[in-house]
Amino acid sequence: MTDAARPLPAILYVDDEPTALKYFQRALGAQATVLTAGSVEEGKRVLELHADTLAVLVSDQRMPGACGNELLFYAWERYPHIVRILTTAYSEIDHTADAINQGQIHRYIQKPWDLAALRLEMRQAVDLARLRREHAQLLREKLLIRQKQVVASRIGTLYALCAGVTGNAGTMPFDAYLSAARCAGMTQAEPDWLMMIHSDLIASEAFRAAAFGHLARERFDALAAGGTAPDGVFALLGEAFGAAFHRTAEGGTFLDTACLTEFLEKPTASAVSAPHAAWLAVLLWLGRQGRTLHVSGGPEGVHVRLALADAASTPQRLAGWIERF
């Protein structure tokens, strides 16, 4: 897009003096879309309406009811991409220095303005806002890649856990587990584990997966030694999940679907719960007996019913599962 075709950046100026608002608009109207507000409260309302398009917020310091610092701090907490500038004719050096040091404001401009200097300051502030947006977009793309990598790694770990416990039958509980997670509507990964250093993330993921595998194996061994028939699976799920699982004529329904996605979607610092480990153990136990759970979604939750196991998975099928997540 050429400079001529690019839309003008938006600047919000907040001041209780109508003359100052008009002067600012006239001075910057050729290089930006100027929005104005006559008080801190009005400035907050304009921010909430136009935060997505605003590049710069300029506020006078001395206004009735509240100071400009308050508005800039409000914007700093909620809209960090907006460049914040304080302007005043009064000497507020101590407050201004504190605000700059805390990151609440980018610059301080003394009134009365030098028109050429003001235009230059706004041009530089708009450029900084653009760079912030570009950086944020690059960061989102990087985190999305990290998210996909971690989920793919967890799916691979799950496959290894299933195959390690039940051999060739391990692909059947693997398919049922991922089908349930899909029906549960697995959400996007949470940012606290997306922001970790890669080496720390890999180490933490390994310990988390090992703990999950240990819990699931313990429960599987108990089920294998218990002598329960496959059609008793729904009683086992009711025991493990309590009110989150409802028995039906054909099988059962998971009412709290979040219990089906823990291992795949929770951050690495979040240990997998005993009920979730029991869920995998039940699937492994059924797989050993040539059975699985047919999974389907519905408005009430995720429905499961007992079924004969399908054909074993192939590497291509595993790759397909990873692609779907």
From TrEMBL:
Residues 10-126 form the Response regulatory domain. PROSITE patterns: RESPONSE_REGULATORY. Signal peptide: none annotated. This is Response regulator. Pfam families: Response_reg. The modification 4-aspartylphosphate is found at D60. Keywords: Phosphoprotein.
